[in-house]
Amino acid sequence: MNWGQCAQDRLSEIAKCSVDETGVTRFPFTPEHKAALSVIRSWMTQAGLKVHMDAAGTLIGRREGPLGAPTFLIGSHQDSVKNGGRYDGIMGVVLGCLALEKLAANGVELPFSVEVLAFADEEGVRFPTALMGPRALAGTFDPAVLAMKDNDGVSLRRALADFGGDPDGVEALARDPSTTLGYLEIHIEQGPVLQAADAALGVVTGICGIERNTVTFTGDTGHAGTVPMDSRRDALVAASDFISAIHNAALKITNLRATVGALSLHPNVANAIPRNVELTLEIRALDDTVRDNFARLAWSAGDRISGLRRVEFTMERTYEQPAVPCDSKMVDDLEAAIATIGQTATRLPSGATHDASAMADLCPTAMLFVRCKDGLSHKPEEFATDDDMGAAIQAISSFLGSGLKASR
Ligand code: HGY
Ligand code: MN
Ligand code: MN
Q1: 352 CB within 6 A, ligand 1
Q2: Pocket residue to mutate for ligand 1, from 190, 284, 319, 377, most atoms within 8 A of Cβ
Q3: Hey, which end of the chain has fewer CB within 10 Å, N or C?
């Protein structure tokens, strides 16, 4: 069986569960998500797993181990960004299912129960929050986020309920840490490190912290032809000062990323001065103190600029996930498993965040990265080879089959 080619075929198949054909656009609790779950359900069934969807919309495939044995979790997210790649997230679900299928085909009985998890929403691009699924399992879910709305005014609560989830049942999903052996997420690297090292696989040492802020500037609108330049309170001019200040400050700080990725303005017509601007400021760093300091710097810049431009300024943190180290013993076990298949692992931090960021609050957590062509991700050109995914499947099977001890 060519496991890598099977992975590639499955990723091509599920990429069709998308709003359009420019890359993959599959937001949570949408018809595309529904279509994807029926495809994933068939893979889980083929791997001999018992399948159900939990209250948070996570599709779970489970293989029972010996009575009373703990459970090992493998997973990632089914959702994508807008016009994203066909590997980000869903690769972890595909390779998890195929690794279990391979172990079953080789008659390997595991000394623990095992589950594959397809989380609904990791990207947080439909709603201004993310990680509901893994936070539910980790017992860190905040029900207040259910009131958050998408751009169409649909609340997360309504979208989840309409999808067949149970908003009021999410908190009860919290798992018992004492019966959870660990969590492994397989993910395309989304960066250039493994390609530069000529390595198919990487073992993640830690995942960066992240926060998202909603920033607003409020000035006054008026006729573009009659209001004198020196008496304007132009919200978009203030916002552009802010964006440049943020970018220039972030350029000077290593291991920090600051991005204004989304912006809306009102009234947004050619012949009226912009009154309102709302933008997102995302800040990431491997060190949470560096991120906190930058958030303070951003607030001071906004406050200073609002005075200069005579507009109001607000900045509200809507989402935060602290940086997490990966479990050192699992990192060692993963590295050993990669060596058993004749590959050399590269250790690296993750500048992207993942479901693993939240799962680390529940149990020992590790990530296996698969080489990413030219480091391209969150775009249709994202690509991983059959061979690299085949090597990952072999490494996971070896990690589960021999590397992982059924005791923490
Ligand atoms: O944005 C990220 O780091 C992840 O892909 N959600
Ligand atoms: Mn991802
Ligand atoms: Mn992503």
Answers
A1: yes
A2: 190
A3: N
Q: Are 288 and 281 in contact (CB under 8 A)?
A: no
Ligand nearest the Cα of residue 369 is 2
State whether the beta carbon of 321 lies less than 6 angstroms from ligand 1. Answer: no
Amino acid at 132: M
Rounded distance from Cα 354 to ligand 2 centre (Å): 5
Look-up of token digits 């000062």: 241
With beta carbons less than 8 A apart as the criterion, state whether 396 and 59 touch. Answer: no
Q: Which residues contact 316 (CB under 8 A, 6 or more apart)?
A: 213, 214, 215
Phi-psi group of 377: left, alpha or beta (phi > 0 → left; psi -120 to 50 → alpha; rest → beta): beta
Q: Which of 14, 16, 23 is nearest to 94 (CA)?
A: 14
Residues 6+ apart with CB under 8 A from 298: 213, 215, 246, 249, 258, 281, 283, 315
Nearest to 76 by CA among 94, 101, 62, 61: 94
Place of tokens 């249709």: 380
Specify the pairing of strand 276-285 against strand 209-218.
antiparallel
Nearest-CA neighbor of 181 among 307, 364, 19? 364
Give the burial string for 30-59 (b: 16+ CB within 10 Å, else e).
Answer: bebbeebbebbbebbeebebebebbbbbbb
pTM for this prediction: 0.89
Q: Which atom of ligand 1 is nearest to the CA of 377?
A: 5
Domains of the chain: 3-207+323-407 (3.40.630.10), 209-321 (3.30.70.360)
pLDDT in tens, the chain (408 residues): 999 999 999 999 999 999 998 999 999 999 999 999 999 999 999 999 999 999 999 999 999 999 999 999 999 999 999 999 999 999 999 999 999 999 999 999 999 999 999 999 999 999 999 999 999 999 999 999 999 999 999 999 999 999 999 999 999 999 999 999 999 999 999 999 999 999 999 999 999 999 999 999 999 999 999 999 999 999 999 999 999 999 999 999 988 999 999 999 999 999 999 999 999 999 999 999 999 999 999 999 999 999 999 999 999 999 899 999 999 999 999 999 999 999 999 999 999 999 999 999 999 999 999 999 999 999 999 999 999 999 999 999 999 987 565 444
Residues in the chain: 408
CB 218 within 8 A of CB 315: no
